[in-house]
Write a structure and sequence with these properties.
55 residues, mainly alpha, 0% strand, globular
């Protein structure tokens, strides 16, 4: 819902992370994706964009 109601906030939050934290978040993205992809696809897209991760 956050991705739909406040576009850009997830990406901004990801960009504000220190680089080491961003790398850890990218590493956890596949797990997060498995939990949220069906219910919140826009949030996954925003996370991938914000973290600079591949789809």
């Amino acid at each position: 819902m956050l991705a739909e109601q406040r576009p850009g906030d997830i990406e901004d939050a990801c960009q504000a992370l220190p680089s080491a934290a961003r790398a850890k978040a990218r590493g956890a993205l596949s797990f997060v994706k498995s939990l949220l992809q069906d219910a919140h696809p826009a949030a996954i897209e925003a996370l991938q964009a914000g973290l600079g991760a591949k789809a």
